[in-house]
Amino acid sequence: MSGDQASAVFLAVETGGTKILGRLASATGEVLDEARWTTTTPKAACDVIVAFARGAAPAGSVLTGVGLAAFGPLVLDPGDPDCGRLLATTKPGWTHSNLRRELHARLGAPVRVDTDVNAAALAELKLGAGQGVPSLAYLTVGTGIGGGLATSAGVLQGAMHPEVGHLRLVRRPDDQLASVCRFHDDCAEGLAAGPALAARLSGEPMALRPEVQALTADYLAQLAVSLVLTWSPHRLVLGGGVGAAPGMLAAVRAAFGSALGGYGVGPAARESAFIVAPRLANAGLEGAMLMATTTRV
């Protein structure tokens, strides 16, 4: 390893609606330090990240790359001067902020940005549940719903990034809950994300409301089928707080076959291990580190 390589350090950052995670690592992958902060304002976030990067870096080291896995919606076109800018978001004070640009200006290192779910998909494909398969879809179900597709060629990006949480579902006729999405009456996020689940449970544990689990699993299975029909991944990871709820993975797997309706989708989606749980504890942060180590000026 050359001297320049030996002195290189890399910064990974994952921003979320409630928390921000940071990690500094050496060129050999050794974790030098990690931190967690509460999400407040863009300026406060930038300040603590910059202080962390400078304070944790060994003497004589050079920050060589930064990976930023961010909540969206985001401008992701690297050729756009506004790359990294947040579009209209429900997080107060963050609309039109650009943490990528500010970190680059203050740290002087190249910053590669992507959505947190794309970063998680990339990490699970290379380091986690997707090892050994050519493509992986990551579906996270928590306060909101997001999805990303990673292949050996990279992650799926178009004019923007996928917003699969707002795909429309077939609402059950007996489902009278008002959608929690202010944009759509029957999208996946409005019917099956954490706030919708909380409204359905009304404070009761899901173990006492099996019909709520079955309904939520049906909606998530519908969404999984939509991803299969559009992306055709070799594996689908179900993550997030709702996805990790006891019994939810098994319930979604059980509902998936019925949601397919017998349509031919090839052997991969019919494997018993097609829909799986994440293997990585912090897939978004792991993905950010993969991005950091592959940045280019």
From TrEMBL:
InterPro entries: ATPase_NBD, ROK, ROK_cs
Organism of origin: Caulobacter sp. (strain K31)
Highest classification ranks of the organism: Bacteria, Pseudomonadati, Pseudomonadota, Alphaproteobacteria, Caulobacterales
Cited Pfam families: ROK
UniProt keywords, alphabetically: Plasmid
Record-linked Gene3D superfamilies: 3.30.420.40
Family, as annotated: Belongs to the ROK (NagC/XylR) family.
Name of the protein in question: ROK family protein
